[in-house]
Please model this.
Amino acid sequence: MFNFEPANYIENTPKDSEFFILFEQSILTFSNENFIRPISSDELTWSYIEEEERHFLGFLDKKPCFVILSKNSNCELENSMFVDFRSALGRMPDQLFDVIARSIQIINWSKDHKYCGSCGNKMDRHLLERAMECSICKGQLVYPRISPCVIALIYRESEFLLAHNKNFPPGFYSTLAGFIEPGESVENALKREVDEEVGIKIKNLEYFASQAWPFPSQLMIGFYAEYESGELKPDGVEIDDAQWFSAENMPTNVPPANISISGRLIENFLKK
Ligand SMILES: [Zn+2]
Model:
């Protein structure tokens, strides 16, 4: 069982530290191990990883934990290999998902904020806070960006609504989701998205749970909502099909409950 406490500052790198290694959109794994895990200080030494940058993440089971961005995909550790984040999802222990999501988001944020958005000057990392700082625009701090998204399972008695996005594989259906617009409440964003994507009205919004989704920076805020009125009419842009399903009539494929809030929304509904 892993316990992760996020933190932003540590003075140095103690000997008992652990490291997640990223390169581009992939993470270091071992082909002879089922689950992704961080590597130790000794493994880091023997890996001969060429370090591009390093960020402190917090404490994983009380041990300082870091993410390292590698300059290339070379690693000398036996059986090591870099695996694309998304294909690695199924090999992430649930309790490590949060810290790995944090690794990916912090690295993506750091890569995208090398220069000041106001004056174009090179930014520096703030010493104590998780922020980038511009030395010309005094006090201009840029924190990691989190993009809130609302995601919902809509139900009508024992049936529930799932949609096929035009980028999904055939037969794969998922819950509706969308980004929250500036100035919008979560509830209004959900009502608007559902109306835009499938043309129906909803009511009785009920918060379920949330989950970081680091592709690249979403925070998924999960709800249940009850159908109110309207006929299903997929927008044809994002959504090319939407249907009412039930426990007896499931689509061929839905998101797995162990790694996605969409899957959990569905699984939890079916239990009721
Ligand atoms: Zn600036």
About this structure: The first helix runs from residue 41 to 47. The helical segments are 41-47, 85-88, 94-112, 186-198, 261-271. The two ends are 28 Å apart (CA to CA). DSSP finds five helices and 16 strands in the chain.
